Amino acid sequence: xxxxxxxxxxxxxxxxxxxxxxxxxxxxxxxxxxxxxxxxxxxxxxxxxxxxxxxxxxxxxxxxxxxxxxxxxxxxxxxxxxxxxxxxxxxxxxxxxxxxxxxxxxxxxxxxxxxxxxxxxxxxxxxxxxxxxxxxxxxxxxxxxxxxxxxxxxxxxxxxxxxxxxxxxxxxxxxxxxxxxxxxxxxxxxxxxxxxxxxxxxxxxxxxxxxxxxxxxxxxxxxxxxxxxxxxxxxxxxxxxxxxxxxxxxxxxxxxxxxxxxxxxxxxxxxxxxxxxxxxxxxxxxxxxxxxxxxxxxxxxxxxxxxxxxxxxxxxxxxxxxxxxxxxxxxxxxxxxxxxxxxxxxxxxxxxxxxxxxxxxxxxxxxxxxxxxxxxxxxxxxxxxxxxxxxxxxxxxxxxxx
Length: 402
Fold this sequence. Notes:
Layout: H1 2-6, E1 15-18, E2 41-43, E3 50-54, E4 57-60, E5 62-64, E6 69-73, E7 78-81, E8 95-97, E9 112-115, E10 141-143, E11 152-153, E12 160-163, E13 165-168, E14 171-173, H2 176-183, H3 188-191, E15 192-193, E16 197-200, H4 219-228, E17 254-261, H5 267-279, E18 287-300, E19 304-318, H6 327-347, E20 349-358, E21 361-370, H7 376-397
Helix pairs in contact: 5-6
Membrane topology: Single-pass type I membrane protein
Keywords: Cell membrane, Membrane, Protein transport, Signal, Transmembrane, Transmembrane helix, Transport
Main location: membrane
């Protein structure tokens, strides 16, 4: 059923699997788009650092190796010199060069695949992640597929990138000590390069209301990788004044809901509630949902930056077109707001604000519900204005200000 397919995506632990590899047998890793054959000359650039996994035996005419690199051989794999006999599948005798893999960046969302708790690839389903959360978050588990080699650039705005665990070459490293030991080995410098360091903590998110991803400092890297370097651009939204979800690179049509919560709020239970009670309904078959904790920057009087405030963000988009774009998402958002009005206090939700942008309406606040909200900014703003006015009147009366 639809519900059973969706539930694994809502699991508390998130696994993210690295997609590219530097395997010898991967055709796209070679400039000719194919694996070298017997009469070819294999050429690794001498100044390029690389780790290459070799699955099977290969006959080659010649091979030029890098000054700093490694060949990781599977059982039975290796290289032999080509004896000159005819090979029906290889008569080119070309020089085949290993591709440059320095550009594979950690913060490129297109290079990661969500994986279920059973370590199987998640199909493109109804639950999605905003772009910052497509890259491994602070409490995520990272997987590099067994029997693959890789090289990844971990340049970051942070000195340290924290993760719960890392699995590579079939081995899971889930403690700081195990990871530190791996970093001292010969392979780590060939696999990871850049100005930042990966740090395994072995700890899960301690808060039942969820934990923010933590990738906001590198949000510009994520969006540049997603859009800038490849020439891709955000699609033109088919709605008036589209919405900009926090942590997402492109504006969207549909609806967003921002929830303030109490200590009783449980993100996992609430996500499951939305999936089972609403998202699984036939009328919402074309709706996709993202839900997570984010941090929204607060300002004083709308100008002076203050600290950020945690909130739960729900993003709803749909597959409607034309004037109907976003209307199914809008209806589901309205149902969520109605549910909050009836059961918000029991769910640990203190207030909710909905914004919509569809093909037939301007975006804006389409509805809100607050169980207990005091707008501190307004109160402080009024006090500040009264004090300023009083000061001006006082100086005027003292004839210091004309």
